[in-house]
Amino acid sequence: MELIFKYLPVLFGGLFLGPVTAEILTRSSLIDHLGRPSGQADAEQIALGLSLTQLCMIAGALWGLVAVFRGRWI
Predict the structure, then answer these.
(1) Greatest CA separation found in the chain?
(2) pLDDT per residue rounded down to tens, the chain (74 residues)
(3) How many other CB atoms are there within 10 angstroms of residue 14's CB atom?
(4) How far is Cα 52 from Cα 3, in angstroms, rounded to an integer?
(5) What is the spatial distance between Cα 13 and Cα 62, in angstroms, rounded to a whole number?
(6) CA distances (Å), 42 to each of 2, 10, 22, 35, in order?
């Protein structure tokens, strides 16, 4: 149980912050700055064969992993 609580920021980052970030990028004008056509759907590949949601989930999980080792989010 202690191991689960220790790595909870990784789950939070990957399973909550990642999808929320992807939705914010998709629903705002920030999507135009990612270098892809504005009409392209979210499910299509944008980099490395991954969708925007998958990339944001990976980035969120990595940010959570950094938070585990540093002891803080910022």
Answers:
(1) 45
(2) 898 899 999 999 999 999 999 999 888 887 777 665 555 554 566 677 788 899 999 999 999 999 999 988 87
(3) 20
(4) 29
(5) 8
(6) 36, 23, 9, 13
The pTM of this model reads: 0.78
Cα–chain-centroid distance for residue 64?
Answer: 10
Q: Is-contact 44 2, C-beta < 8 A?
A: no
- Runs of H (alpha helix) within the chain: 2-6, 8-12, 18-27, 52-70
Tell me if 15 sits within 8 A of 54, measured CB to CB.
no
The secondary structure of residue 41, as a DSSP letter, is -
What 3-state class would DSSP assign to 38? Answer: coil
